[in-house]
Specification:
Layout lengths: L1 E5 L4 E11 L6 E7 L10 H8 L21 E9 L2 E2 L1 E5 L2 E10 L4 E11 L8 E2 L7 E3 L5 E2 L2 E2 L2 E2 L14 E10 L3 E4 L2 E2 L2 H4 L16 E11 L4 E4 L2 E6 L6 E7 L2 H7 L2 H15 L7 E6 L4 E4 L2 E4 L5 H21 L7 H20 L7 H13 L15 H23 L1 H15 L6 H12 L4 H9 L6 E9 L2 E8 L7 E7 L4 E6 L18 E2 L9 E7 L5 E6 L14 E2 L12
Parallel strand pairs: 1-14, 20-21, 21-23, 27-28
Antiparallel strand pairs: 1-2, 2-8, 3-7, 3-11, 4-5, 4-8, 6-7, 9-10, 10-18, 12-13, 14-17, 15-18, 16-17, 19-20, 22-23, 24-25, 25-29, 26-27, 26-30, 30-31
Helix pairs in contact: 4-5, 4-6, 5-6, 6-8, 7-8, 8-9, 9-10
Length: about 575
């Protein structure tokens, strides 16, 4: 792909040679492309949705409707050819249909040559020009991007505001721009000796004559390409001995330098932690780039706003770079399964942040609180809902982020924490570069744990049922104590029970769910428990007895580590003195 941008009028022109292989069993008669920049025009689906949804994104609201012609976005494919024959094109807002001149058979490849032009919009959402921190260009979703085709057919989803799904490919991109600009991009710069601008070069830098430079970036096995450009970028490079080369691009101003100077050290530690605990980052480079409107991930690069305190800057940088594992390598369909990207990224990010800043508390507590608030608001929708079709932005955001993190974290209560950690690594290795769906995560966890988990994935993802278990009775019966646990809401879970004695001891019990066809294992002596008979899932209550006198018992508590998304914590215990609840949480 070759593109040139004129900063005097913010218009660009490009030419692409796209080699496309049909790996499906179907004959393709047409292909689809995304034309994202066309969302930034009055009357677009993004514009209308933002003006009619109950809780619009405050970054968008009615701003698109007020754009003047020179401020709008535009992306048009002027012509396309398949070999020597022209391809018939139909522009459909943010989607392009291209009717092939020759059908593409299964296992065959074809080359599509096309020219396109566009206009960079005033920055509103993710991409655009002249953002709130005066970064000149945040070039994301800027080119005609091939849509994904899978067992469900084409995913030519209009750009309404959510995130993305793309086709794996190798990119070779040449960008021509005024030489005063520094460019950060997906991929590795292949001609640093002609460019300079802080890029390491084995040869002395010798720029060609003229006021423009052509930058050549290459990236293998990625599903998108983004770049940013500004005249005042400072470019810092931090090599890693056993990881990617880290690049940092931010405005060369004292207010940014004071905080950004510390970011490289934190990010090196973040990448090392992720490589060890969640799978190895495979690409040679990653760039943290000031731009955009908050934080947004792209292959080998993130766009983040820079005017932050160090905790916030590290937090957004961790989250967006961790997306490289879930958006970048695993690359689930973010429209259909937003929680698989955002929620799993949040789960791993919480672990990273605790590693960076310390602390012994459960780092995932906020995910349950967010989910609980959503349920209590009455806006809760099933997580299976397509991201664009949630009734409110609040429901989408909390479901994708808080519910997703909670869903993964809670799985540790079902299969065990160490089994969950090993299962996440197994999932990563089995599914990287494969666009996994929930069934793939389910099967990885089943194979790792030896348990059946369809009940967990089916009900938590496909319904809005909620969880509430309670300790309903503790009675002396003969020489034993009878303990009864009740399921008060519809959701199913195995249950951990802690029995506190007056001499300061705690006995742990685990009630497996019959549908799991087994039980989690204690990963250490410190986590040991007494395994009880399974709870038949159709029974509303479960009773077990322990030998002894009720007078020796200080209290009984279910879910003592509070790993379950139990909607009523007040009925989780009987007889515990004040201050005991949550004392076992780690």
């Amino acid at each position: 792909m070759q593109v040139s941008l004129d900063p005097t009028n913010h218009r660009f022109m490009g030419r692409t040679a796209l080699a496309y292989t049909n790996n499906s069993p179907d004959t393709l008669h047409e292909v689809f492309f995304h034309l994202y920049f066309n969302a930034f025009r009055p009357g677009s689906e993004m514009d209308v949705r933002s003006r009619t949804i109950a809780d619009p994104d405050q970054r968008v609201t009615d701003r698109i409707s007020a754009l003047k012609p020179h401020e709008m976005g535009e992306l048009i494919v002027d012509r396309m050819a398949q070999g020597s024959k022209q391809v018939r094109l139909e522009h459909l807002g943010t989607v392009l249909r291209a009717v092939l001149s020759q059908p593409l058979l299964p296992g065959k490849s074809t080359v599509l040559d096309f020219d396109f032009h566009g206009q960079v919009p005033v920055q509103i959402r993710r991409s655009g020009r002249d953002n709130a921190e005066s970064v000149a260009y945040s070039m994301a979703q800027w080119y005609p991007k091939l849509a994904e085709y899978d067992q469900r057919g084409w995913h030519a989803i209009p750009y309404v505001g959510r995130e993305f799904h793309g086709v794996w490919g190798d990119f070779d991109v040449r960008i021509t721009l005024d030489s005063a600009y520094t460019i950060a991009a997906t991929g590795v710069l292949r001609n640093p000796e002609q460019i300079g601008h802080g890029y390491p070069s084995r040869k002395p830098v010798k720029r060609p004559n003229g006021q423009q430079l052509t930058w050549r970036f290459q990236a293998k096995d990625v599903h998108d390409f983004a770049w940013a450009a500004d005249k005042s970028y400072k470019h810092v490079v931090k090599p890693m001995a056993d990881g990617p080369e880290l690049h940092f691009f931010y405005k060369d101003q004292p207010e940014y330098e004071a905080v950004w100077k510390d970011l490289p050290g934190y990010m090196e530690k973040s990448f090392r932690f992720m490589n060890t605990h969640f799978g190895r980052y495979p690409w040679p480079q990653y760039s943290f780039v000031q731009g955009g409107d908050g934080g947004m991930e792209y292959p080998m690069l993130t766009l983040i706003t820079g005017k932050r305190r160090i905790g916030s800057l590290v937090g957004v940088s961790v989250h967006e770079s961790v997306h490289s594992w879930y958006y970048g390598l695993l690359a689930s369909n973010e429209g259909r399964f937003a929680w698989m990207d955002e929620g799993m990224t949040e789960y791993a990010s919480s672990k990273v942040m605790q590693h960076l800043f310390g602390g012994d508390d459960d780092p995932h507590v906020s995910s349950f609180l967010g989910y609980k608030a959503l349920v209590e608001s009455g806006k809760h929708e099933a997580p299976i809902m397509h991201a664009d079709h949630f009734i409110t932005n609040a429901a989408y955001g909390t479901t994708a982020y808080s519910f997703g993190e909670m869903f993964v974290h809670q799985l540790g209560a079902v299969i065990g924490e160490k089994t969950l950690s090993r299962g996440l690594l197994r999932y990563f290795e089995a599914c990287k570069f494969k666009h996994p769906e929930p069934i793939d995560l389910e099967r990885a966890m089943e194979k790792q744990s030896g348990l059946e988990l369809d009940w967990y994935f089916d009900e938590w993802l496909n319904t809005t049922r909620t969880l509430d278990y309670a300790v309903s009775e503790v009675l002396q019966v003969g020489d034993s104590v009878r303990i009864t646990v009740e399921r008060k809401k519809e959701q199913l879970m195995p249950v951990d029970v802690a029995v506190f004695t007056r001499d300061g001891q705690v006995a742990h019990y685990h009630i497996p769910l019959s549908l799991a066809r087994g039980a989690k294992r204690a990963d250490s002596d410190a986590e040991a428990f007494v395994l009880l008979r399974p709870w038949q899932w159709t029974d509303p209550t479960y009773t077990f007895v322990i030998k002894g006198d009720i007078g020796a018992i200080a209290g009984v508590m279910i879910d003592p580590l509070q790993r379950m998304a139990d909607m009523d914590r007040e009925n989780d215990a009987i007889g515990l003195p004040e201050g005991t609840r949550g004392a076992l949480r780690n």
